[in-house]
TrEMBL record:
Species in which this protein is naturally found: Populus alba x Populus x berolinensis
Major localization listed first in the record, in broad terms: membrane
Pathway note: Glycan metabolism
Keywords for the protein's UniProt record, in alphabetical order: Carbohydrate metabolism, Fucose metabolism, Glycoprotein, Glycosyltransferase, Membrane, Signal-anchor, Transferase, Transmembrane, Transmembrane helix
CDD domains, per database record: O-FucT_plant
GO molecular function terms attached to this record: glycosyltransferase activity
Name this polypeptide is given: O-fucosyltransferase family protein
Family that this chain belongs to: Belongs to the glycosyltransferase GT106 family.
Spans through the membrane: 42-62
A Gene Ontology cellular-component term: membrane
Length: 383
């Protein structure tokens, strides 16, 4: 029987003792010890490593669960003065991308004022959705009476516009490089669609052009889709674009909040869009109450824009048909008949009224607390 009583013995001493215990068994025992010792050491190290990592993982999970609660009572480790809490914005859940076979790319150039362009964008999104095409972010009118150089992203939140509609239609900021080169070479089709067309017009006339040329440019988009007789899905989408997807930029929204705040500080107010600007009167041919010089200026302006199809217009006939905007004088009568308090603030949300103070005199006498856009701008600069 072998007794190991001296652990500090060297290898040679162990070998001598083993020889004394039994010469025949020594070789067999030596071979077993040499072959098994490395294997046992490797297994012990591996098992120890796994156990240590398991303990670390459990300790980390426990720390995340209980650590903050325990540390709150330790002023030295956790205090609101020493730790700055960063508020994480709520995650925006985007709709899944709509998967469909792309029939081409639709470029759009809007025309008219902001209201007309906004309505046109709603129409073009609905048309792109119905035709299964990719819409390029619309280009805004820069050649109208207003000569506004603003791009789409200057007025609307372009990222929100694209992301909020990704479940309906694919929208890109610009054409892919290959197609952009084709457009630069003139290898695309451009046309003004027919006004007040039904969706079948776009199915039978525009879709074949998209499939043939891959890129179609609609260069006039105001009032190009009918209001009635459309599938309910299209009407819903137009509303969704107008009231959700077309969100103003943060700068414009902030300016709007400032305007409303200033008006509210002075009591109840009413916002009035007279639609009595020079371009509106020239386009419609409504010249009631204008003198001969003003009528002449409006006529010259109408002829200056070749895409305004109506040139010779009978103003009185148009007025009798109810196709003219209310004059400032008529607006004063309507507001009075509605029982509007004469001391209420009336904010004129429009451009320069054609005829100036002469045409606004009756309205100002009936409602002296008028706030023009120019006056509102002065108030904003003083804030």
């Amino acid at each position: 029987m072998l007794k190991m009583w001296k652990t500090e013995d060297s290898g040679e001493e162990w070998e001598m003792k083993l020889k004394l215990c039994g010469g025949g068994k020594f070789k067999k025992l030596k071979t077993s010890v040499v072959s098994r010792s490395p294997m046992k050491l490797w297994m012990i190290r591996a098992i120890t490593t796994v156990l240590l990592w398991t303990c670390v993982v459990h300790l980390m999970s426990l720390g995340e669960t209980w650590g903050p609660r325990l540390l709150k009572s330790w002023t030295s480790c956790y205090s609101h003065q020493d730790v700055e809490l960063i508020s994480v914005p709520a995650e925006v859940i985007l709709p899944p991308k709509r998967v469909y076979k792309n029939n081409g790319y639709l470029m759009v150039s809007c025309n008219g004022g902001l209201n007309q362009m906004r309505a046109a964008i709603c129409d073009m999104v609905a048309i792109a959705r119905f035709l299964n095409v990719t819409l390029i972010v619309p280009e805004l009118d820069k050649t109208s009476f207003w000569n506004d150089p603003s791009e789409f992203q200057d007025i609307f939140d372009v990222h929100h516009f694209i992301a909020s509609l990704r479940g309906e239609v694919r929208i890109l900021k610009e054409l892919p490089p290959r197609l952009k080169t084709r457009v630069e070479l003139g290898l695309f089709y451009s046309l003004p669609p027919v006004s007040w067309s039904n969706i079948s017009y776009y199915t039978h006339q525009i879709l074949p052009l998209l499939q043939k040329f891959k890129v179609v440019h609609l260069n006039k988009t105001d009032a190009r889709l009918a209001n009635n007789g459309l599938p309910l899905e299209i009407q819903k989408l137009r509303c969704r674009v107008n009231f959700n997807a077309l969100k103003f930029t943060s700068k414009i929204e902030e300016l709007g909040r400032k305007v409303v705040k200033i008006l509210r500080e002075k009591g109840p107010f009413l916002v009035l869009h007279l639609r009595y600007e020079r371009d509106m009167l020239a386009f419609s041919g409504c010249t009631h109450g204008c003198n001969d010089e003003e009528v002449e200026k409006l006529t010259r302006m109408r002829y200056a824009y070749p895409w305004w199809k109506e040139k010779v217009i009978n103003s009185e006939m148009k007025r009798k048909e109810g196709l003219c905007p209310l004059t400032p004088e008529e607006t004063a009568l309507v507001l009075t008949a509605l029982g509007i308090d004469r001391d209420v603030q009336i904010y004129i949300a429009a451009g320069e009224i054609y005829g100036g103070e002469r045409r606004m005199k009756t309205l100002m006498e009936a409602f002296p607390n008028l706030v023009s856009r120019k006056k509102q701008q002065l108030l904003l600069t003083s804030v």
